Amino acid sequence: METELTLDDKNLLVMKLLHYFITEKNYNPIILQGVENEIWLENLDEDCKVVRIVSNYIHNNEQFNFDVFKTKRIVKKIKKKTFSLNIKVMSIFLDLGENVTEELNSDPKLLCINVKDESDIKKSDLISDVFPDLSSKLKYSEKGFELFAKITGDINEHNRKDASRIEQLFKSKVPYVTYFLIIVNIIFFVVPLLLGVYNSALTWGCIHGPSIRDGQYYRLLTGIFLHGSIWHIFFNCYALYVIGSQIESFLGKPKYIIIYFFSGIMGSLFSMIFGGSTPSIGASGAIFGLMGALLYFGYYYRVYLGNVLKSQIIPLILFNLVLGFLLPGVDNFGHIGGLLGGVLITRALGIKDKTTTFEKGNGWIMTLIFTVFILYIAFVYSA
């Protein structure tokens, strides 16, 4: 004899809401200790970045105000972890007592919705503005066990695909392009040394503003493959291996190549602008561009890389920039140019599954404006 699964209206609504936010809007559950009878979901790509489904009974104004206070305190922690300046939260209360007379939406960043049943969702202007399709997505032909099986099955399948995508993204891959770039840098160093034309090669290919303005444009590119000493090329190749292999893995080989060369050329242009007639060499500008790309990528995946951003990526960039200003003979303006170029071109190229077409379009416009401006300063204003 079959036993039919029955759920009360509140739990059934919770399951339907979870199904919508997870499978339709790609929200992910937030694990919070000490929080009971409420579910927190986040999607930093949405306008409303956090959604709370609150099923516990809120009896009066004091309990409601405490809930608001607790929510704001938790949101502050989420802001720090995710490097978010503003987080809009929607709290969906499923059991708000009649004694709660406080204005629910006095804070525009904390939307509070009183939902007794599905009809309240359809009536809510706030929900319609943020999630216009929510009401229609809560209608199912299945009932009882079939509905439970569908919802749980869909959520599990979505989570499985999402976990597989993240695993594939962060899985270690062989960095063939990085190996190739390291080999090219080594060839540019070793071959002139063996042929006894090392100093001549530096003179011929270094980044030198007056020579580039005279028509030797190849120096913008050759200068990023030349190095002044064994230690110079060793540290740059090591940094290229560590950072470049990650960018190649995260963004793919074509985007990686574009970021490397665009950042390197931007670094060369900044060296022209701020270095005067002082020659400059090294792959540091391109490597700083890769750091900028890693910073941009890490921001979009800050749920997974938040601690890495705070403890490794940002301190590494700041440390190297400060060190560049303190040590003599370091072309730190080339580093800054590469860093800016790396961030801009990565925004233009986009992050798979994260960056919208509109954002990429804005990125290309910003990159074009930036490039034209720097070319004008380098070849016209500074001439």
Written account of the structure:
By secondary structure, the chain is an alpha/beta fold. The chain has two domains: 161 residues; 210 residues, Rhomboid-like fold, CATH 1.20.1540. The chain has 16 helices and seven strands. The strands form two sheets. A five-stranded mixed sheet has the order 1-2-3-5-7, sandwiched between helices. A two-stranded parallel sheet has the order 4-6. A hairpin with a 7-residue loop joins strand 2 and strand 3. Helix 15 packs antiparallel against helix 16.
Low-confidence stretches: 1-5
| Apparent shape | elongated
Radius of gyration, rounded? 27 Å
User: What is the CATH level 1 assignment of the largest domain?
Assistant: Mainly Alpha
Separation of termini?
A: 90 Å
Per CATH, which architecture of the largest domain? Answer: Up-down Bundle
- Strands of the widest sheet, in order across it, are 1-2-3-5-7
Into how many domains do the coordinates divide? Answer: 2
- The CATH topology of the largest domain corresponds to Rhomboid-like fold
How much helix, percentage-wise, in residues?
55-70%
What would you give as the CATH superfamily of the largest domain? Answer: Rhomboid-like
- Provide a count of the helices: 16
